[in-house]
Structures are given as structure tokens and as C-alpha cells.
Write a structure and sequence with these properties.
This protein is mainly beta. The chain contains one helix and seven strands. A five-stranded mixed β-sheet has the order 1-7-6-3-4, with no helix packed on it. The protein has a two-stranded antiparallel ribbon with strand order 2-5. The model has no long low-confidence stretch (mean pLDDT 92).
Length: 104
């Protein structure tokens, strides 16, 4: 993560199943609008069915912010199981951003 811009230096959506941690950057279409957002992870089957895995709160120091960066510990979230996953950033029931990634 570039600490000045909060952008990922080398973006990827495929990772080794043994990758212990990933970094992510979120660019919202507008202001966060809250002092806490939820980061939600789910697995995706080949047929497109999702299964909830994990959620955590992300503190927002300024509700006007639109860009965030953080890391996720894949070992504790998905158990480093190969497959397709989705990560969503939510404010209450509203999806603000989402990204799909694959563990190989």
C-alpha cells in the first residue's frame, strides 16, 4: 500500500492459498458517512451461491473520508482454503464497495 495515496502498488485478485495476509484499498464513490463501517467476507461457489464467513468493524476517523487501506488475515478469515471469495465494505445494509478474489 502506498502510504501517501492509500492505493495498492501492485494490484492482484489471485493469491496463493498460503498467503497469510493481503492488503486492500477501498475508494468509495462518496463519503463514508459514518464513524464505523463493516468489512464482510463470504465464499462464492461455482454456482454463485455465497456463504457468510466473517465480519469486522472498521473505524473511520472522519466520516468525510473516501479512501481507506488495511490488511486482512486470510488464515483466520477463510482458513487459507482455495476458492473464490468476496469482500464487501458496508454502512449498515448499504454496500459501499466490493471486490472478488481467488485463492489458488
Amino acid at each position: 500500500v502506498n502510504t501517501d495515496t492509500l492505493e495498492i502498488v501492485t494490484p492482484a485478485d489471485r493469491f496463493s492459498a498460503t498467503t497469510p495476509e493481503i492488503s486492500y484499498s477501498i475508494a468509495l464513490p462518496g463519503r463514508a458517512g459514518a464513524t464505523s463501517l463493516s468489512v464482510v467476507f463470504a465464499s462464492i461457489t461455482d454456482s454463485g451461491t455465497e456463504s457468510f464467513l466473517y465480519t469486522e468493524d472498521m473505524a473511520v476517523t472522519n466520516p468525510a473520508f473516501t479512501i481507506f487501506a488495511n490488511t486482512a488475515d486470510l488464515a483466520s478469515i477463510v482458513g487459507n482454503t482455495p476458492g473464490k471469495y468476496v469482500m464487501r465494505v458496508m454502512r449498515d445494509a448499504t454496500v459501499l464497495a466490493e471486490g472478488i478474489f481467488t485463492l489458488e
